[in-house]
Amino acid sequence: MEPNMSQANALDSSAQSKVLNDNQFLVNEVRPDSALLVGDAAVFKIAGHFCATQAKCPHKQGPLNEGELDGSTVTCPWHGSQFNVCTGTVLQGPAVDPLKTYRVTVDGEMGRVEPA
User: Fold this and answer.
1) Residue numbers of the domain that contains 82
2) What is the CATH number of the domain that holds 57?
3) Tens of pLDDT along 85-114?
4) 16: in domain
5) pTM of the prediction?
6) How many CB atoms lie within 10 A of CB 26?
7) Quick check: is 30 in a domain?
8) Distance between CA atoms of 50 and 80, rounded to whole angstroms?
9) Residue 10 within any structural domain of the chain
């Protein structure tokens, strides 16, 4: 029995994810208006470039990959702290500690978050 198209797509996606390491991602999966969770990092696409930060807010560990992104500013969905995702700078509290940022490298369609 042949798989239907949705099963075939699921198989393709499953095969791709097995090839990727925890710190790798497909660049076409990062939408400009949101973040992609890659391991313990949130990857953002800002003006055609990739920025990566720790995925959890330093204030109360809110999921920054679920926060609203406006330009290069992400707002934590839990308490409203705002950060520049390219520099990690706190733009608005209650958070006082900046985000850890990570270098992102791209090779073709594959991106990688470099360890700190």
Assistant:
1) 22-113
2) 2.102.10.10
3) 999 999 999 999 999 999 999 999 999 999
4) no
5) 0.80
6) 16
7) yes
8) 23
9) no
Total number of domains in the chain: 1
Distances from the Cα of 32 to the Cα of 12, 60, 72, 89, 101, angstroms: 24, 26, 10, 20, 18
Distance CA 99, CA 60 (A): 13
Q: How far is CA 61 from CA 92, 96, 98, 100, 108, in A?
A: 16, 13, 13, 13, 33
CA-CA distances (angstroms) from residue 51 to 13, 96, 99, 104? Answer: 24, 20, 12, 6
Q: What is the pLDDT of residues 2-47, one digit of tens each?
A: 444 444 444 344 444 447 788 999 999 999 888 999 999 999 999 9
Structure tokens at 44: 């953002």
Are the C-beta atoms of 85 and 99 separated by less than 8 Å? yes
Alpha-carbon gap, residue 34 to 43, rounded angstroms: 9
Distance CA(56)–CA(1), nearest Å, equals 44
Is residue 42 within 8 A of residue 36, CB to CB? The reply is yes
Could you tell me the maximum CA-CA distance found in the chain, to the nearest angstrom? 58
